[in-house]
Amino acid sequence: GEKDTHKRECECGNFETGDCNSTLTPDSATTHKVYCSVCNDVQAEGVTCEFGDWAHVDGEKDTHKRECECGNVETGDCEFGIVDNEDGTHSEVCGTCEYVKSTVACTFTVVPGQSADLGVGDALEVECICGNHGTLMIGDVNDDGEITLVDVVLILRVAAGMIDESAIDMNVADTTAPADPTNTVDTADAVKVLRFLLAKKNG
What we know:
Blueprint: E1 5-9, E2 15-19, E3 23-26, E4 31-35, E5 42-48, E6 55-56, E7 63-67, E8 73-77, E9 80-84, E10 89-94, E11 100-105, E12 109-110, E13 123-127, E14 133-137, H1 149-159, H2 170-173, H3 187-202
Antiparallel strand pairs: 1-2, 3-4, 4-5, 6-7, 7-8, 9-10, 10-11, 12-13, 13-14
C-alpha cells in the first residue's frame, strides 16, 4: 500500500525497509517509464521525455542532438545562417545548436541603386551577404585609404593580364561605371585615376 517503500524479509520474520528510488528507462522514442531499480516497482509509464538543450554531435558537421535523462536521444540536421562577427569576418552558424561551421573574411559587393555619377575619389557603398556594410574610395584598389600611383599601376597590370583580379579590389577599380555591380577593368580606368591624381596635384 506504500508507493515509495520496499522491503525484504528473513525467514525468521525480520525484515528491512527502504525508500524506492526513481529510475528512468525508455519505453518509446519519446517517452519513458519510472521505476525503482531495487524492487522494480513501476511508478509511471508513458511519461513524455524532457529533452535538454541541443548540442552539436562531435565529428559530424551538420548534425546536433539533445538527450533525456532516461537515455533517449533526438537528432536533427543543423540549419545554418550567416552571422556578422563585426570584425570583417562572418560565420556559418547553426541557429539551433550554435555550432560554427566556418568563418571567412567578408566579401563585399556594390550596393545597388547608387548614383551613376560617382567617380574617382567618391565613396562607394558596399555590402556583404552577412549584412555588414561599408564604404570604399573609388580608385583606391589596394584599400590603403588613399589614391596613389600604386593604384594606377595595379589597374594597368590587371588590365594587361599580368596579375589576377584578386590582387585588387574590383569594386573600386571600375572607375568608368563604379555603381554597376558588374566590375570590369581596362586602361581607361587607370587613365581616370591618373587624371584624378594630376588634378589633385595641380589643385
